[in-house]
Amino acid sequence: MLGQEFDAVQLTAYKKLSADDRAYGLALAYATRRLHSRYELTQYFRRKDYGDELSEWIMQRLEAGGLVDDGRFTEAWVHDRRLLRPISKRRLVLELRQKRVADDVIERVFADDQTDERAILTELIVRKRKQTRYRDDVKLMQYLVRQGFSYDDVKSALTPKGW
Predict the structure, then answer these.
(1) Residue 161's pLDDT is what?
(2) What predicted TM-score, i.e. pTM, was given to this entire model?
C-alpha cells in the first residue's frame, strides 16, 4: 500500500471514517468507566456535538457490546447508592427518573429488591443521633424527610415506641 494515491472523495471518506472511529473510542472509554443510562450517553454525544447518525451508530455498537443496558444500570445504581449510605426508595426512584430510566425498568428492579426501608431508616437515625446537630428531633426529622423517607415513617420511627 506504500505509494498509494487517493482522490479527494476517498480522502474525505477516510477522514470521516477516522473521525468516527475516534468518536467511538472516546464513547467507549466513557461507557466503560462506569455503567451509564441511555439518556446519559445521549447527553454525552450531544455535548461532544456528534450528529444523530454518528450517535446512533455508536449507540448500536455499545449496545452490541453489552455496555448500554438500563436494567443493569438501574440495578448497579441502587446497589451502589445503598452501599455508600442509607437512602430511601423514593429518593432512588427520583434519581433514576432524573437519569431518564423508564418507569417499568425501575419497577422491575425494585420488585426484586429485598431491602427493608424500616431498617435503613432506623440505621440512619442511630447514625445521625451521634452527631450533635441531629440530637434535636425537628432537625433530624427534616433531614430524614429530605432524604426521601415519608413523614409518617419518620415520625413513627422517632417516637419512643418506634415502629
Answers:
(1) 58
(2) 0.76
